Amino acid sequence: MIVGRTAELARLRSALGAEPPRASHRLVFLEGAIGIGKSALVNEFLAAWRGARILFARADELDSRIPFDGIRGILESLLDTELGPLLQAHRSPRALLRSVRTGLVASPALLVIDDAHWLDAASITLIEQLLLEPASPGLRLLISHRTGRAPGALAAAARRSGSSMHRIVLAPLAPEDASALLSTQGVDDARLVALGGGNPLFLRLLAEGHHRSGAMQIDPIEAVGASLDDALRGELLALDEEARALLGAMSLRQTVPPGALHLVAGLSEEAGARAADRLAARGLIDVERMRVAHPLVQAAAYRGMSSSSRHRAHRRAAQHASDAIERASQLQHLGAMLDNAELAVIVEAAAIVLATSPQSCIGLLERTRRVPSRERDLLLARALLLDGRPAEAEGLIRAAYRAEEPSGAALALLIQCLRIQGRPDEALELALDASPAASSPEVAVELATLEVMHDGSPSIRSNDRLEALDPASNPPLAAAMSALRALAGLRDGELELARREYASAKHGFARLSGNEVLSVIDAATALGWCAHFLGDFEAGAELLERALGLAERHGRFHALPHLYVVLAFICIPLDRCTEAEEFVELAIDAGRRYNWPDAIPLAATAALVAAPGRVSPADFHTRYRRLQDAGLPQIAWWRRIVELFSVRAAIRLGLEVDRAPLAVGPHDLFGGQKHLGLGELALASGDPATALEHAEAAIAVGLRARHASQTGHGLLFRSQLFHALGRNADAREDANRAADCFRRGTAPLYAGFAERWVQQLSAPGPSTPGTLTEQGGRAAALEGAALTPRERTVAELVAEGRSNRDIAATLHLSPRTVETHVSRILRKTGLRSRAGLARRLDAAG
Asked: What's the rounded mean pLDDT across residues 109-134?
């Protein structure tokens, strides 16, 4: 029974309760100084708990550099698997989060994290995501930490999620409670009450010192010193050699199996048992659980070991570890004393945790830098790349590349590093100038990717260096090269070649094993783009989802921003816009995290493409501004996509635009989209005849490319133009043809747009289309008024009944400027009121 904590115990029980929370989370932050009794209070509370099961974890001061080590106890109990195999099975943090959430839904629990001030970053992130995930069940968390060292991210996440939060601060014991605690230890001495300062741990150590000093006729205060550290040093110095050795073994890591502790200490089983009894008698360990009684004692015991004793203990502990990750967590403390076999264990473990936490991988490997190893340096460079530190990675890779005979793996990593930093020309030159010894499938894929994605590069079809690798004898390389040749064919306007190579690549990728796909993961993104541009949406999504799962599980983080972006684009026509929005945010986050800035504007473009028919005009404008703020990608291919859709969005918003991105070149892959943009621009300028010419050109591009969805977009735009011109029979015919094209092209989102437009055309009364050109009919109604694009936008908002102040906020103008626009609109249209303008536009649909 603890002393003097009745009020705090009652608050704990009231805050967490026995009934599970129905919606919001409940959190209690239990705060106090070292030795103040936080763990004792938690244990007392849990002993009387009668609610859901308890999942307990205690973070460790001895940094293991293993992700999720701080909540190891919770994860292993919840998922019934040790942490090492758990990380191997859940290489992606998202996958682990899903498993944890599923486990908590199936079996609600009280989560208890003791010593949370030692939590690792991965553990904090996972708990934070659980708190913020809308799909997460109502959680109950008890988080114990030292004063002033609360995990701030968890408190912030709790506030953002609307959780119920309580903060309980453990103050020093009152003098009467301190005296009562000493009495339970058989001591009655007012001097010790004053010296203990109300700290329960200090009081117990003082009581122990009192007993020893009494036997030795020494003043108890002199015996234990004037501080807690002095007391601990005195306590540990008083131990015999066997007890010190066992306590040292127990201080290493909580994961050393209890049955192996005597072996780690270098003792016989009998000697270990006797030493444990002596430690328990002094209150230093919990003999039932074979665990050090307090983290402060654990830290003092570890610091008190000599370096040679510590190294021996870590090596022995590694021999009894259950997996490579746990072995590495012991061996990493050897530093320069590592041998080659031990270093190989750490590199193996670091490769496993790389996928889950690049920072943990870096932490593991940095401790081994005094031991030369090319394999370690390349893995560390990969982790630095994934952690958004490409300049540091480049230095390591170049050193490894120069130190020994160049290898394909090192060259591929260096090319990738330069590509990520926006230095494609330098990367291409390096790849072409490298010695034949550095040729490998990885280098071939990197080189081909550079040549395809950057304008002005030689064609991969005539590159002798790539052909010399004989892709026919290497299925992954053959599939990758087909995908890249297909993308090159699309770039050069050779559609038949692109279709043949795409079919070959799709067949090849479907036959590859997971490891084979990983070896050419960048080419999988090229295959995804081909599927998108050729209108093979369903097959493309299936291929990309497989590649994404492999990349997440196996740490190919450099490919994640690109994979997320392509999936976002390909999910849109499949009417999976909610998923597309999720992939957009993942791409932006991954682009920032892994230093791929080009992915950010491309992802923002996908958010804009997914917007029509789903968001308000104000939200559409916000997405447009987000894209402008993101800038333009360095990669020419991506830059053209961003510029094209940025211009089309600006046309819809009534902004002044630069026509250059809409210039249609010969064999232009984006010709259909550009003609639609030119048609929209002509319509916004009051020139429906020119708009009709561009609609027919867009249809022709789609038909030549045998791209059903692209043809459908041209037909739908022409249908809207026909309706605005009063040719309703032609409008209905084109709308039906567009819906049929979208259905054949497996683009259900756009098929839905077309079908709703058909219904509107067939119904009596005004009709309004629901695509990027939904303002077409209204624009035609104003074609004689010579309004500027900005005035047309203002007119639309006036017709919706919006006030000048509301319009000003939407368009980021002053109310006075909006008032001036409205006056000009009324004068140009010959109308007398805002209501008259609304009636004219409504009549035009």
From this structure: 89
